[in-house]
């Protein structure tokens, strides 16, 4: 049940991450939900291949935003599952 909140209303999404999402065409919770945490991570990685941020900065933050949890509370099992999808 999405409320289509703005990105910065979601957990883990500050101005910098919201800006990165905007640059790949994601402007709302529904749009992030549509492409998913893995899709958003991959799109940002493609747009900024020289950027070497830790996986938690984007991938885990996006997943946490979608389930309304701090990125570090999504659980090790879920983190491993997400990491396995980004190749």
Question: What do these coordinates show?
Answer:
By secondary structure, the chain is an all-alpha fold. It has one domain (7-86): DNA polymerase, domain 1 (Orthogonal Bundle). It is built from 4 helices and no strands. Helix 2 runs antiparallel to helix 3 and helix 2 (29-47) crosses helix 4 (76-86). It is globular and about 30 Å long. The relative contact order is 0.18. The model has no long low-confidence stretch (mean pLDDT 90).
Describe this structure in a few short sentences.
Helix content is 60%, strand content 0%.
Task: List its salient traits.
87 residues; DNA polymerase, domain 1; mainly alpha; globular
Overall structural class, as computed from helix and strand content, comes to mainly alpha
| CATH architecture heading | Orthogonal Bundle
CATH superfamily, by name, is: 5' to 3' exonuclease, C-terminal subdomain
> In angstroms, what separates the terminal alpha carbons?
30 Å
List the total number of helices.
Answer: 4
Cα-atom radius of gyration: 12 Å
Q: What is the name of the CATH class?
A: Mainly Alpha
Strand and helix order:
HHHH
Largest pleated sheet = none
- Give average pLDDT, whole number: 90
Number of strands: 0
Task: State the shape.
Answer: globular
**Might you state the CATH topology name?**
DNA polymerase, domain 1
| Relative helix content | 55-70%
As residue ranges, the low-confidence spans are: none
Number of domains: 1
Estimated share of beta-strand residues: under 5%
